[in-house]
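ok so i was messing around last nite and threw this chain in just to see what happens. nothing serious, just curious
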Amino acid sequence: MIYLQLFLSFLQIGAFSFGGGYAAMPLIEEQVVTLHNWISSAEFVDLVTISQMTPGPIAVNAATFVGTRIAGLPGALVATLGCVLPSCILVTVLAMLYARYRTLSLLQGTLQALRPAVVAMIASAGLSILLSSFFGGDMVLFTMTNVDVRAVIYFAVSLYFLQRRHVNPILVMSLCGVTEVAVTLLQPLLT
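result:
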């Protein structure tokens, strides 16, 4: 039964996550955190981080991660298949239709109307991940007493290097990881 649940959940994610991986984040969070309670909010932030650090699409990486965590290798295969199947079918059909009707104004208007909705989905996912990172997964209490100061510092420094200095994102993530390891290892020596 769990295999069917994994397949159907990620089939829905794969079928309705228009706009790429970031747009899929609210859908993934809804399925794996809210609806099925397969992982916690804090684990969801870890899932996003791991999905970012590994090659491949975010939704596929998330499906593999959750599937493995819930039902091992068979779960990973079933969840990943559910995630990619709608795309394979839909892209094939859309490619044929687009090649035939690409000059049709109704098609161009529809595509243009979808863009703001996709941006809203990406912004929603980003805000949810940001708040969960800053407040340690406690999405109920937004007070300065439970803010993760290191997460805020990592965010601000990363944003600066990514936007102002145009540093490679992989390097920024690596430096944040190395910095956190160093801080964690040095913390007992400083206290």
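not much to say yet. The mean pLDDT is 89.
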